[in-house]
């Protein structure tokens, strides 16, 4: 498999009202309450939810069929993968004003996205069967590097803490692919279940967790050798997987059951099932993306069909409230 690299300086453009340079989140005027951002894929909008108030405080147009979101390390911007188009768009977190639109090229269809602590963005380009590294995304001299996966449906994305490695789930090819972002070695792909989609790296970087929605399974992989260490049965159609910040559990979003499977990461066994919706509500709510709060006490579950986000207390498993968002809420990002 051939490595593909494309460097383009100035390929993307910055729009008016560019965001300030990256830096620590400031107290006082720049400080924000705990905030959830939601990409509404059917409404083509972006929602901002004040978690202290428990209500949506702003909703503005975004792009066609927006999906995954990622907040900047300084908390001042949120990046959006425009799955219905070719760009990664960046918005201010305070006003949702668009400050940049970064075009990834013909038929890109960006989906998975990570805004790394190093300040760089990483995104899948499903239509191009590739992954992009966007260096200095808010700079006028930003640079884009493209890495081919050679696989169909490169969808979701994880990036190592040192930003040397990225991993994708390739829905159409039934594989997980490891991409070396630095040494430019050829990608390594392994078959993992049926329709692998969810992906998450453990906080210590030692285990890659994958959920395969077509086979109702989760997998623990060695991130470097790509060996499958453990195979865990889950609920039905585990669309996403997310590891708690503490690293003790991984949770899958089981769409057809309306539940969450809680996997103990040490034993690689399901230890709890959390019901988010009743059997009668499952199709009406259609849960998709899941996201942990920064302290690991809450799980946010995007319910795409009912235009809500369920806030779940991890300790008790209770649904504390349902937050109203736009039409087809899916991708989420959070500011603590």
TrEMBL record:
InterPro entries: Haem_d1_sf (IPR011048), Host-pathogen_enzymatic-act (IPR051200), Lactonase_7-beta_prop (IPR019405), WD40/YVTN_repeat-like_dom_sf (IPR015943). Residues 1-21 form the signal peptide. Keywords: Signal. This is Uncharacterized protein. It comes from Erythrobacter dokdonensis DSW-74.
């Amino acid at each position: 498999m051939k490595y593909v690299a494309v460097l383009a300086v100035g390929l993307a453009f910055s729009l008016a009202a560019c965001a300030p340079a990256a830096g620590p989140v400031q107290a006082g005027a720049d400080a924000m309450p705990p905030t959830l951002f939601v990409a509404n894929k059917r409404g083509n909008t972006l929602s901002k939810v004040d978690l202290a108030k428990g209500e949506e405080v702003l909703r503005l147009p975004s792009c066609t069929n927006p999906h995954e979101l990622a907040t900047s390390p300084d908390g001042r911007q949120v990046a959006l993968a425009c799955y219905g188009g070719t760009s990664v768009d960046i918005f201010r977190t305070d006003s949702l004003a668009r400050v940049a639109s970064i075009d990834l090229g013909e038929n890109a269809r960006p989906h998975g996205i990570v805004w790394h602590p190093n300040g760089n963005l990483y995104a899948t380009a499903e239509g191009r069967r590739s992954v992009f590294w966007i260096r200095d995304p808010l700079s006028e001299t930003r640079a884009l590097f493209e890495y081919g996966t050679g696989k169909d449906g490169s969808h979701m994305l994880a990036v190592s803490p040192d930003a040397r490695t990225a991993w994708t789930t390739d829905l159409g090819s039934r594989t997980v692919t490891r991409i070396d972002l630095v040494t430019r070695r050829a990608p390594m792909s392994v078959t993992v279940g049926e329709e692998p989609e969810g992906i998450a790296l453990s906080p210590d970087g030692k285990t890659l967790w994958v959920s395969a929605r077509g086979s109702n399974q989760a997998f623990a992989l060695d991130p470097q050798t790509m060996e499958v260490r453990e195979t865990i049965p889950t609920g039905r159609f585990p669309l996403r997987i997310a590891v708690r910040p503490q690293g003790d559990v991984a949770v899958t979003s089981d769409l057809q059951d309306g539940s969450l499977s809680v996997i103990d990461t040490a034993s690689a066994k399901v230890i709890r099932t959390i019901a988010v919706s009743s059997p009668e509500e499952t199709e009406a709510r259609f849960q998709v993306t899941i996201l942990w709060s920064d302290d690991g006490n809450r799980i946010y579950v995007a319910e795409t069909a009912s235009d809500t986000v369920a806030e779940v207390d991890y300790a008790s498993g209770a649904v504390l409230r349902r937050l109203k968002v736009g039409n087809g809420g899916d991708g989420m990002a959070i500011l603590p």
